[in-house]
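pls design
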C-alpha cells in the first residue's frame, strides 16, 4: 500500500472514531436536556398543585379539614422544600448542559476537520 493510501486509511479510521465521539457527546447533551425538561415539568406540577390548593382554601375557608388539622402548613413546607431541591438540581443540570455543549462543539469541530482533510487528500489524488 502506498504512503498516500496508508494516510487515507488512517484518516478514515480517525473519521470513524471522531464520528463515534461526536455521537456520544450529542447523546449526553440530549440526556441532559431531557433531564432538565423532566425537572421543569415536576416544578410546574408542584406549582399547579400549590395554586389548586390555594384556590381550594379560598373556597372552603377555615372549614378545610387539612387546614384545621395543621397539615396544610406541613404540605406547604414540603412543597417549598421539594421545589427548592428541584430548582437546585435544575441549576446544576443547566451548568452541566453548558459544559456538555462545549464538549459536543469540540467533537464536532474535530470531526469536521478530519472530513476536510479527507476531502483535501481526495482532491489531490484527482488528475
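designed seq:
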Amino acid at each position: 500500500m502506498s504512503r498516500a493510501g496508508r494516510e487515507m486509511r488512517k484518516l478514515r479510521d480517525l473519521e470513524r472514531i471522531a464520528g463515534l465521539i461526536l455521537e456520544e457527546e450529542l447523546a449526553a447533551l440530549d440526556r441532559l436536556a431531557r433531564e432538565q425538561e423532566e425537572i421543569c415539568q415536576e416544578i410546574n406540577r408542584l406549582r399547579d398543585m400549590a395554586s389548586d390548593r390555594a384556590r381550594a382554601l379560598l373556597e372552603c375557608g377555615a372549614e378545610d379539614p387539612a387546614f384545621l388539622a395543621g397539615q396544610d402548613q406541613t404540605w406547604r413546607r414540603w412543597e417549598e422544600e421539594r421545589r427548592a431541591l428541584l430548582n437546585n438540581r435544575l441549576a446544576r443540570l443547566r451548568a452541566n448542559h453548558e459544559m456538555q455543549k462545549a464538549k459536543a462543539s469540540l467533537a464536532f469541530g474535530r470531526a469536521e476537520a478530519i472530513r476536510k482533510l479527507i476531502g483535501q487528500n481526495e482532491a489531490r489524488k484527482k488528475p
